[in-house]
Amino acid sequence: MKTIFVKAGLCMVLAAAGCSDGGAATPATPDRLTAPVHLTNCGVSVNVTAPPQRAIALEQNATEIMLSLGLADRMAGTSYQTDPVLPDLRPAYEKVPVLAKLYPSREAVRAANPDFVYSTYTSAYAPDAAGPRADLATLGVPAYLSEFACEKPADATRTVTFDGIFDEIRDIASVFGVPERADKLIHDQQSRLDAARGAAPMATPSAGPSLLWYYSGTSTPYVAGHGGVPDAISSLLGVRNTFTDASQKWPAGNWGEIAKRNPDVIVLADLSRGGDGDSAQSKIDYLRRNPVTSKLDAVVAGRIVTVPGSSMDPSIRSVQAAELVGANLHGTAR
C-alpha cells in the first residue's frame, strides 16, 4: 500500500504550539491538518480532501483500530460487534452510535451522512450491506478496505504480517491527520510482541512444538493454514503451525489427518456467534468425548490454549493471541 500526504502549514502550527528542537511538540489535532491524503488501497485510489469528521467503521476490527487512535469523536457510527469491546476502549465505544447489529444497509450508511467509511472485510461492501466502494465514491465518500481482504484477490496482500497490520494503522492515522498516534500505538504493540517472543521457549520453527490452530466446527474442523495470523504468530514464537502446508488460510480439516500429525498444542478460537464448535468450551467438550481426538497428545496432557476468535484475524487483538500462546509454550516440545 502506498500513502502520500502533505501537511500544509504544519511548521506554522507547531510554532504556534510552542515547539522547539529540545522539547516535545503538542500533538496536532485532525482539525489543524487540512491537506489532502491520497492512498492506493487494494488497487483503488482513495482520496481524502480533509480529515474526516463523520467516519463509519463497518465492523469491530476497524472500530477498535479507530478507537485505539483516539478517533471516537470523529465517528458517526459503528457496527458488527462480534466480541465484547476491549475494556480500555469501552468508554470511547459507548459514545459512538451503533448503526446495526451486523452490517448496516446502504440506506443506514447514507442516513448517517459519512465522510469516510472503513472496513477490514470485503463483505462489508457487498450490495446487501454498505454497498460497493465505487458506489460510495460516486457520493463523494472515500472508503478504505484492509489490504488483507481486497475485492480482487490479485490486489490483496496474501500473507498476513504484523508489519502489514501496522501499515494499515498508519494509513488510517494519516487519513485523520494523527500520525503520531499511530507511532505510539505501533510502538506499544511491537513492545508486546517482543515480550511475547521473549517469554516463549527459544526454538526454531523446525525444532519447536507444533500447534494446531482450531477455529471452528466439530464434524468438519476449520483450522489455520498458510499465510494468516496464526502463521505470523507461529513464526514469531518459533513454533510450527501444523497445517502451514495448506494453501488456504482456513482450510477444512479432518480428524484423521489431525490425529496423524498429532500436534503438541491446540489453540482454540473462542467465537461468540453460537454455531457448531464456535465457543472454546464446545470445542473442548468435543475434543474430550470424540474417540479420535480424545487420544491426541495435546488433549491427554491438557495442552490447550484459548484465545479470542477475533484475535486470529488481522487486528490490534492479534498481539493478544501471541501473548497468550507464548506464555503457554514452556514444556510443550517433544
From TrEMBL:
Keywords: Signal. The keyword Transmembrane helix does not apply. Gene3D superfamilies: Nitrogenase molybdenum iron protein domain (3.40.50.1980). PROSITE patterns: FE_B12_PBP (PS50983), PROKAR_LIPOPROTEIN (PS51257). Pfam families: Peripla_BP_2. Residues 1-24 form the signal peptide. Residues 54-334 form the Fe/B12 periplasmic-binding domain. Belongs to the bacterial solute-binding protein 8 family. This is ABC transporter substrate-binding protein.
